[in-house]
Amino acid sequence: MVESINRRGERQRTRVRGVFSVCITGGSTASVVYHNDVSKPPPKPQAAAHLLDSTMPTPSSETTLTRGAAELGVALKARQLEQFARFCTLLQEWNQRVNLTAITETGDIYVKHFLDSLTALPYIPDQAATLLDIGSGGGFPGLPIAIARPGLTVTLLEAHARKTAFLSAMVTDLGLPNVSVVTGRAETEGHLPQFRGAFDVTITRAVDALAVLVEYQLPFLRVGGLAIALKKGDMAQELAAATRALTLLDGWLRSVEPVTIEALCDDRSVILVEKAGATPERYPRRPGMPAKRPL
User: Fold this and answer.
1) In the prediction, which pLDDT does 206 show?
2) Domain map of the chain by residue range?
3) Distance of alpha carbon 230 from its chain centroid, rounded?
4) How far does the chain reach from its first CA to its final CA, in angstroms?
5) How far is the C-alpha of 193 from the C-alpha of 292, rounded, in Å?
6) How far apart are CA 188 and CA 104, in angstroms?
7) CB-neighbour burial class of residue 251 (10 A; exposed 0-12, middle 13-18, buried 19+)
8) What is the DSSP letter of 56?
9) Which of 223, 211, 207 is nearest to 276 (CA)?
10) 54-292: what CATH class?
11) Per-residue pLDDT tens for 171-201?
């Protein structure tokens, strides 16, 4: 029975068949819903939209990053975790306008971008002062390295102006005075006096073959400097194909270090190449040639 008030202000009772339910949505707003069909259950309350936002960093994603970094011997501080969280949010926002990455879920960004970038840290010498990230794109691996190691001077080299606009915005927003951004191609910038032979470490995280990457990287290094390539998959054939390039560019393969941290168990490795002598002046070749015709 349901008690109601009729038009004359009199109380009346009416027999009804159905179910009343109370739904609370989005916090404190409540509504009463009558269901005429008792065979159907009342609708489930809808979760508040802000609770389902996949762009928000979660404790689990930050924990995964913290634990993975610890496995690499890196202790991330609260300020650095705040920078990573902000970086993740801005990357997702900018990615709607600029094609920066196909990896967009927060958890994946923390593992496949942030943590993967940090796998280079154990191999960057303590005495290294300068690092060049070639083909930085969305800031990987250079920005995570700069966040985790603020005493290192990092230069991000990227050919596309829209991406360097993003990188410059990140440097400002995240408060990274140790980072600078350069718009240009490695084949061109590698011949400029201010860059050639100027860096202690160069790094790439690209799909190009190692024979291509070392032609981009070695000209920027001082003699004795270290070229790092973050790679994925079986490297045996690629390493063999890079032998001639290493000889021509006066570099030598120091080691191939497998990535063994728990969160990245998909056959990743860190390739380390040392620059043994001065790079011949003709390298790198003109734009497009290293990739089109690897040494």
Assistant:
1) 81
2) 2-50, 54-292
3) 13
4) 87
5) 26
6) 32
7) buried
8) S
9) 223
10) alpha beta
11) 999 999 999 999 999 999 999 999 999 999 9
User: Distance between CA 234 and CA 15 in Å, rounded?
Assistant: 74
The mean of the pLDDT values for the chain is 87
Q: Of 6-10, 146-150, 251-255, which range is least confident? A: 6-10
3-class DSSP state for residue 98?
coil
Q: Can you give the pTM of this predicted structure?
A: 0.80
- Annotate 227-267 with DSSP letters as a single string: EEEEEES--HHHHHHTHHHHHHHTEEEEEEEE---TT--SS
Question: CB-side exposure of 3: number of CA atoms within 13 Å?
Answer: 3
Tokens of 218: 């070695």
pLDDT tens digit sequence for 139-165: 999 999 999 999 999 999 999 999 999
130-134 and 19-25: which strand pairing?
Answer: unpaired
